[in-house]
Amino acid sequence: MYKYDVVIVGARVAGASTALLLARAGLSVLVLDRAAPGTDTLSTHAFMRAGVIQLARWGVLPAVLERAPAVRETVFGYDGQLITVPMGERHGVDGLVAPRRHTLDALLVQAAREAGAEFRFRHRVLDVQPGKGVRARGPEGECFVRADFVVGADGLRSQVAKAVDATVVRRTEASTGSVYAYVPSAPEDSGYVWRFKPGSAAFVVPTEQATLLCATVSSRRFLAEVAADPRAALRRVLTEHDPALAARLPENADIRGFAGAPGCLRRAWGPGWALVGDAGYFRDPITAHGMTDALRDAELLARALITGGNDALAHYQGTRDAFAQPFLDVTDRLATFEWSMSELEQLHRSAAREMRREADLVARFGPLVTGARMRAVG
Ligand SMILES: Cc1cc2nc3c(=O)[nH]c(=O)nc-3n(C[C@H](O)[C@H](O)[C@H](O)COP(=O)(O)OP(=O)(O)OC[C@H]3O[C@@H](n4cnc5c(N)ncnc54)[C@H](O)[C@@H]3O)c2cc1C
Hints:
By secondary structure, this protein is α+β, with helices and mostly antiparallel strands. The chain folds into two domains: 3-69 and 98-172 and 262-339, FAD/NAD(P)-binding domain; 176-258, D-Amino Acid Oxidase, Chain A, domain 2. It has eleven helices and 20 strands. Strands 1, 2, 7, 8, 9, 10, 18 and 19 form an eight-stranded mixed β-sheet that branches. The site of flavin-adenine dinucleotide (FAD) has 35 residues, from helix 1, strand 8 and helix 9.
């Protein structure tokens, strides 16, 4: 039976990106996902600069920008006082972008396929044997996929993490819940808008042929006030921040919601396995950073696997955590909704500092080697 170098569980931003890089380097890669191809998932879509740099470096950005508008500024609202921050050029990138997930994930899959990675959708992984492969069930029944290395890119409730008993390095306490809807774009929707007031936030994210309006509160408030009637809650919170935003919400808008989950940083690797994306590192969506993190960590992991050996994998985890830990500090504090406006501005400044550091890191990545051979790792 054919044996892959790497089998990846999960075919969205983390899994498809890792597959793309490994396949370009010459490794044989199979990606399994229980979902159907091209499906949507919960997301408010906002990429930060490091994520856009990665999309540009990998050659995926032009296709993304054909579908979603470039975002040229970010507006922060502190209890009604608006501060506009123009993007400016840095590392060759002068805009952000917020593609719909059914577009972004599909473009990454397409690029990975073009590089030689194989994908099997509607395949649920049932059992993980690190260093040997995974057992999965697809439309034609059960199969065992042999692979030297198993990567869990299977999201917050990662089955791979459970199967390998990945140690939790850190768990955070605070979490937020969000409700959002897509509304027709308006000419004034030129940037991300992050408005904050004591107890709630309202976000505007221009995406593909629509703008996403989002209301965010603590998970406690979400369960007490939002869960019972998300539509009314979205309208109420948007009105608190700007009645004109609430007026844009159609009566029949399709409302999506997420009640929240605490942040969780897991050990990133062990013998024959590694985790990437939310599977290894979940942070509250209030900093809109999960996809940007996933693209950074996909490349850190791919480079470690190409180099091979435990030191390379330890370096993957060390670098991931050097970025994840300070970002988790800021995210967790933001998610409490217990800050003053001046502390909030400080927190945003800290997040911006971390994002500059992260953009500097990914911009320094050199080209990947090609024609790599899998070395025994982990
Ligand atoms: C409400 C909300 C808003 C957000 N907004 C933003 C934002 O604005 N910007 C941002 O950067 N991030 C945002 N995020 C975070 C971002 O969505 C995640 O960080 C990102 O989706 C993580 O990608 P991933 O590939 O690691 O995991 P996922 O996107 O969760 O993908 C995991 C995949 O694994 C598959 N899978 C799981 N188990 C199995 C199995 N047993 N067998 C086979 N397949 C399996 C699933 O089907 C899924 O396709 C938001 C998150 C939420 C919840």
